[in-house]
Design brief:
Radius of gyration: 20 Å
Shape: globular
Distance between the termini: 34 Å
Order of helices and strands: HEHEHEEEHHHHEHEHHE
Strand content: 5-15%
Structural class: alpha/beta
Number of helices: 10
Bound molecules: 5'-O-[(R)-(carboxyoxy)(hydroxy)phosphoryl]adenosine, zinc ion
Helix content: 40-55%
Strand order of the largest sheet: 7-6-3-4-5-8
Length: 302
């Protein structure tokens, strides 16, 4: 992704997007405006935050800047209603892969995160290698579903103690196997290779979740972010939650990937809890979730 192009694309689309929304919702009926204020690409963040602040100023309604990953975490509630606490939240997107113990609003403990590529990023790189367009996650998932995982042996990454992830070794292993495929075989070999890639990536995530569930007692499990739409991941997460006797919730496809509903939902949730960030109007390209409040903490397992 080219940051400058992403920012320009936001600029080009924000006015027509807002007009579309205002054809369905009266501006006067809006009593709170929110936008993602971090983490992310500074140009894109600035477009959204400054545009939303302009409306908030003109309409004399409050503005709230929202943490993108915190919004993904709570997006699992939008369609299912309030989740029991504590719960284990998996966030798998193009930029982040983390496991969070959610004890309440603004009461988070990061149990694990990726040491290199995010899961969605690994899918995008795998897809690029196969010549798929960006983002490639859904196309890799589809091709993998048509293949058989046993044909190419790819090692499940990080199959040990602890809950941190790593996907960059898997991406390199995929590249080496890909080079062994000759063009005549590629019609069946590529789905088979991607099925092995998908199996290794998903089993790595499930292994880390099992490690967390052994150490922490939770009442539910959630998955959100674009890669949570992955068919095998979704199936295995359901299986894992069932085996542990806890409910599993994941938003439907359109709320798994980036969306404005989750930003608005979290803004309302924070408002109801009386939580107002002092510097909510500032854009923060780097904004670790552990900085959200004094009650948040980072722990290392294993
Ligand atoms: O949450 P999201 O929309 O944006 C970020 O915050 O990054 O996630 C986008 C990511 C992309 O990397 C995309 O390839 C991946 O989610 N993705 C998938 C699938 N659908 C989208 N990855 C694996 N399997 C999928 N079915
Ligand atoms: Zn996202």
């Amino acid at each position: 992704m080219v940051p400058e192009l992403a920012g320009r694309s936001h600029l080009e689309q924000i006015t027509s997007l807002t007009r579309n929304i205002l054809s369905e919702v009266a501006l006067d009926s809006i009593d709170l405006i929110a936008a993602t204020s971090g983490p992310g690409l500074v140009g894109s963040l600035l477009v959204g935050v400054q545009y939303a602040r302009g409306i908030s100023f003109a309409q004399e309604v409050p503005f709230r800047g929202i943490h993108h990953i915190e919004a993904h975490i709570w997006s699992a509630e939008i369609e299912s209603g309030e989740l029991p606490l504590p719960h284990l939240a998996l966030v798998v997107s193009g930029g982040h892969t983390l496991l969070v113990l959610v004890r309440g609003i603004r009461d988070y403990r990061i149990l694990g995160e990726t040491q290199d590529d995010a899961m969605g990023e690994a899918y995008d790189k795998a897809g690029k290698l196969m010549g798929f367009g960006y983002p490639a996650g859904a196309a890799v998932d589809k091709s993998a579903s048509q293949g058989t995982a046993g044909r190419f042996a790819l090692t499940v990454p990080m199959r040990g103690e602890g809950s941190d992830f790593s996907f960059s070794g898997l991406k390199t292993a995929l590249l080496y196997k890909f080079r062994t495929i000759d063009a005549a075989q590629s019609e069946t070999a590529i789905p088979d290779l991607l099925a092995s890639f998908q199996y290794a990536a998903v089993e790595s995530v499930i292994h880390k979740i099992e490690n967390c569930l052994r150490e922490h007692s939770v009442c539910a499990m959630t998955a959100s972010g674009g890669a949570a739409a992955n068919s095998l991941l979704n199936f295995r997460l359901n299986e894992t939650a069932n085996a542990h006797g806890i409910p599993f919730r994941s938003p439907t496809l359109k709320l798994c990937s980036d969306n404005a509903a989750m930003i608005g939902y979290l803004a309302c949730k924070l408002e109801s809890a009386g939580i107002i960030d002092e510097i909510s109007h500032v854009v923060r390209p780097r904004w670790p979730i552990s900085q959200l409040t004094a009650r948040t903490s980072r722990i290392t397992t294993g």
